[in-house]
Amino acid sequence: MNSDVPVTSRRQVRRVAGAALGAVSLLALAACGSADPTPAGASSSSAAFKPVKQEEGSQITVWADAARVPGVQAYQKAHPDVKIKIVTYSGDANGANDLQTKVRLFDRTGSGWPDVAFSANVNDGSWTTQGKTPFAAPVDKGLIPQSTLNGFADGALNPCKANGATYCLRNDLAQNVLWYNKKLLDKFGYSVPTTWEEYEALGKNVAKEHPGYLVGTAGDAWSPEVYFWASQCPASTVTNANKVKVDLQDAKCTRMAKLLDGLIAKGSVSKDTVFSAGFVKNQASKVLMLPGPSWYGQVLFNSTFKIPKGQIAAAAPLKFQGDTKNYTGNVGGGLWFVSSHSKNLKASADLVTWMTTSDDYQATAGTYPAYKQAAVAWLAGQKKTGYFAQDVSPVFQDAAELIWPGWSATQYSQEAIYSSTVVPALNSGKTLTDTLGTWQTAITDKAKSLGYTVN
Q1: Which residues pair with 287 in a beta bridge?
Q2: Beta-bridge partner residues of 195
Q3: Residue of 33, 25, 26 lying closest to 3 (CA atoms)
């Protein structure tokens, strides 16, 4: 999610996946880089929101990335009476921080704010709601019906919530599932694991019986969201606007670090990133299993790895024995904001509602819609492709409701810190367990530099 980090793997993702990854808001994971001049604790109540003087029928300016522009154009075609000016920008993907930078400039000059803005960076929900006059308008205060907001997957709008209100709509989700190559799994005579302990045992067997085959990777920037989020590790749990809990020595962090360390040592979990040229060339065909986001199916296995039709399947997220629920993490998911400065809130709110909920757009979008009804139509489209070995619909739908709420959107990027701190340590021969202290210090220092109090 942030620009103060190496983003090599993200650039590789963009090169490989092209427009499809524009929709993949993994790249939600881009970046917040510079510190927000507004202290993290400075917030204003949504009850105090007072719209500027409205000008019904006035033109609205919409900022969107290249992947979302066709959707905005489709809305414009379907609503010819709405005057729209479309501005194409980075969408804050791949380490960009353009929205925050521009909004801060507009705050100083007193004009220039877009009426609507899309961001591929989930972390943008952490600053757009703060300050004396937050950029984002609270959409649940008369702009968008509660019945519409209730239609989003459980927890999907959490990055949008602050000060007792909801400040944005979620475009898509990237819930993690357990991907596996059914053809290889059947050939080797293995069963799909349902717990992390079974996954660990299978990984050790694979290393012994089929050396070179993989059950995971730990070198991707988003590895924390795949493994540690699923383990309910409190790497960043925001307790209020300016306080965050960071405890990588918690048992739910150390258990995952230990599990991965064992499989890395055996060779069945790679320290490489799945989008590196070397991995794609030499290891893609040897991926037996891979915990990862819902977009892995089409973007990674189909488009990048070019695994033939009928081999790839998805299973439910894993849990540790003793846990009552198999929580999972999330690698992406863009946000739509209505500006608090908009002179046409009605048109702005209608556009973001259509972009996030309409089957006309979401059913054919590149990634899994956050709106449950649109997700049903999207999954029907996935089934029609005939790519997967079995219908992924029930797994995706269940996983969308299992994202652990204790992993918070913050002004800093977990991916950025993992890339600059943990990945180099792994490549130098250190274990994840050995690196937990350094990782915690890096998170703590970054959080404090942005105004957070760290517990």
Answers
A1: 214
A2: 319
A3: 33
